[in-house]
Recover the amino acids of this structure.
């Protein structure tokens, strides 16, 4: 069996501010670094022989560095794992966008994919980019091996929906340093009447049990939401 373990980066400074990121980045907050350290220890304990790949954006790389240190091995990066581009909304506070573009912001909060209108990537374009990367990484994983992928909320959400051919929206949100896992039993497992399919399946989603309550972003009292709808996570 092959495992693809997906991890969202720790809380970034801009997550804490409610600022839209996309490809722009200001690195992890102090909480994000603490989340990364705790998550790294948990993953290294569970998967000591895992290979590790990261998005090439700083908030993901900083999260991955903690894991690489725990595993005492280098990691690779893949640009395809980046968060979606948010075009003209990048680097702006969500509150400012809501004030200046109230109709478009309301449509976004209601679930309409408006990002193409501001020069960014649509959800479909993000899925077109991320899902092949996830397929490639799972395919390159050794039998009985594990690959840990550190990436972004939007990349995980759209990538998994596309990879597993799930109707939108089937899955909930993705918390900072939450863990999801996709498994594949390989082609040999699909022989005869074996009910295990060769295709990948989702084994767990948005799991944060490894984090103490005080490090779970959603539980932390704050003036602004930690992660408004998947805005540049």
């Amino acid at each position: 069996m092959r495992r693809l373990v997906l991890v969202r980066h720790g809380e970034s400074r801009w997550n804490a501010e409610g600022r839209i990121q996309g490809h722009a980045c200001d690195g992890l907050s102090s909480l994000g670094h603490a989340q990364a350290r705790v998550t790294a220890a948990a993953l290294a304990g569970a998967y000591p022989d895992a290979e590790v790949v990261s998005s090439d954006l700083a908030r993901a790389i900083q999260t991955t560095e903690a894991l690489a240190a725990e595993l005492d091995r280098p990691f690779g990066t893949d640009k395809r794992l980046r968060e979606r581009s948010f075009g003209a909304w990048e680097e702006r506070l969500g509150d400012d966008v809501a004030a200046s573009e109230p109709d478009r912001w309301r449509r976004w909060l209601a679930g309409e994919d408006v990002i193409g209108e501001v020069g960014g990537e649509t959800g479909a374009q993000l899925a077109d980019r991320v899902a092949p990367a996830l397929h490639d990484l799972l395919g390159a994983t050794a039998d009985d091996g594990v690959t840990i992928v550190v990436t972004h909320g939007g990349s995980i959400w759209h990538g998994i929906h596309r990879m597993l051919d799930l109707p939108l929206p089937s899955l909930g949100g993705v918390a900072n340093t939450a863990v999801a896992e996709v498994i594949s039993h390989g082609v040999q497992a699909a022989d005869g009447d074996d009910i295990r399919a060769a295709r990948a399946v989702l084994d767990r989603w948005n799991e944060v049990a490894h984090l103490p309550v005080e490090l779970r972003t959603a539980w932390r009292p704050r003036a602004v939401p930690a992660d408004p709808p998947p805005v540049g996570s």
Remarks:
- Residues 2-219 form a domain with the Rossmann fold fold (CATH 3.40.50.1240).
